[in-house]
């Protein structure tokens, strides 16, 4: 029998997961959310190091609380001053953490830092955000969509604003699960064609770029994020003129008639989205935030628990 709890050693770009593995993570997340008591000792005795070169609310709290709910612990390492590689080499940092912790979860400025950590660590390395990708957010988003619609297959998901790390990961996982995904951005902020080509090679031509909202056809979900990525100190007011045509507001909602609106937060109200929309019944942003915990816990469970413990937790859930 195939061991469905086995995932790749690391999750750096998100591409490490197959479509089958991605669906397994989401299914286990739903199981753990429904019956958390069955899994509360799954990672007993396990520890993860959580590294932060950038500020965090949802990532820091969801990993810390999530590990506690699984019986383990998360150790917070604040690297927002000098950053990794200054006080000691990234290689030595990774090797030392591997002596004590069962995984390294890193929120970093540069994707190359993750690659260097993974090269020298002897435990799994998980990307909790970098300049290129945000796979943990995309897992939570897909879990939210699956809860809301039953399946992503056939949904038209439209991301609007600035093409960034969230956009890349969202387009990848949503397309892998059968959604049509369109990124609507200014031409100079569009997702690179090579990334779309990679997605479409896996998902059969479901990812597209656009520069305006005309001719999108039916839209099921509108998704947006900040216009200035974390770590960029450009004032939002400075880019407002460029991105204001991509704002999600009452007029845009009336035009496209989405069934849901998503935002990974933090929300800059009056910029990428208006309060009228983000506080409406269409908004899924708090459900997305909640699901960071469950999607990440499923990922950690599959990467860190032994198969016997995982099977026992599943048996307990089924018995109850």
TrEMBL record:
Domain of life: Bacteria
SUPFAM superfamilies attached to this UniProt entry: Aspartate/ornithine carbamoyltransferase
Enzyme category, top tier: transferase
EC number: 2.1.3.3
Keyword Transferase: yes
Aspartate/ornithine carbamoyltransferase Asp/Orn-binding domain mapped to chain residues: 153-302
Membrane-spanning residues: none
UniProt GO molecular function: amino acid binding; ornithine carbamoyltransferase activity
Residue intervals of the Aspartate/ornithine carbamoyltransferase carbamoyl-P binding domain: 10-147
Keywords assigned by UniProt, alphabetized: Transferase
UniProt keyword Electron transport, yes or no: no
GO biological process: citrulline biosynthetic process; L-arginine biosynthetic process via ornithine
Protein name: Ornithine carbamoyltransferase
């Amino acid at each position: 029998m195939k061991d469905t709890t086995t995932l790749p050693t690391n999750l750096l770009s998100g591409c490490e997961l197959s479509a089958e593995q991605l669906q397994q993570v989401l299914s286990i997340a739903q199981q753990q959310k429904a019956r958390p008591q069955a899994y509360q000792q799954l990672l007993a005795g396990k520890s993860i190091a959580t590294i932060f070169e950038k500020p965090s609310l949802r990532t820091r709290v969801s990993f810390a609380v999530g590990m506690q709910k699984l019986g383990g612990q998360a150790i917070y390492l604040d690297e927002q001053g000098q950053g990794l590689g200054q006080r000691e080499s990234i290689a030595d940092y990774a090797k030392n953490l591997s002596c004590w912790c069962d995984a390294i979860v890193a929120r970093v400025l540069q994707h190359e830092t993750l690659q260097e950590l993974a090269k020298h660590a002897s435990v799994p390395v998980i990307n909790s955000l970098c300049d290129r990708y945000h796979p943990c957010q995309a897992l939570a988003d897909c879990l939210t969509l699956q809860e809301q619609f039953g399946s992503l297959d056939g949904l038209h998901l439209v991301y609007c604003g600035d093409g960034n790390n969230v956009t890349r990961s969202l387009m990848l996982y949503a397309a892998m699960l059968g959604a049509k995904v369109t990124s609507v951005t200014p031409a100079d902020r569009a997702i690179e064609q090579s990334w779309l080509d990679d997605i479409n090679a896996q998902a059969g031509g479901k990812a597209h770029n656009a520069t305006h909202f005309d001719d999108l056809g039916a839209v099921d979900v509108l998704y947006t994020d900040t216009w200035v990525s974390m770590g960029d100190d450009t004032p939002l007011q400075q880019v407002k003129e460029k991105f204001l045509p991509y704002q999600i507001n009452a007029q845009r909602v009336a035009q496209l008639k989405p069934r849901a609106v998503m935002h990974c937060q933090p929300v800059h109200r009056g910029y990428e989205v208006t309060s009228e929309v983000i506080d409406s019944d269409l908004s899924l942003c708090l459900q997305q935030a909640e699901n960071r915990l469950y999607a990440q816990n499923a990922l950690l469970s599959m990467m860190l628990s032994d198969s016997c413990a995982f099977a026992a937790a599943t048996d307990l859930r089924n018995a109850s």
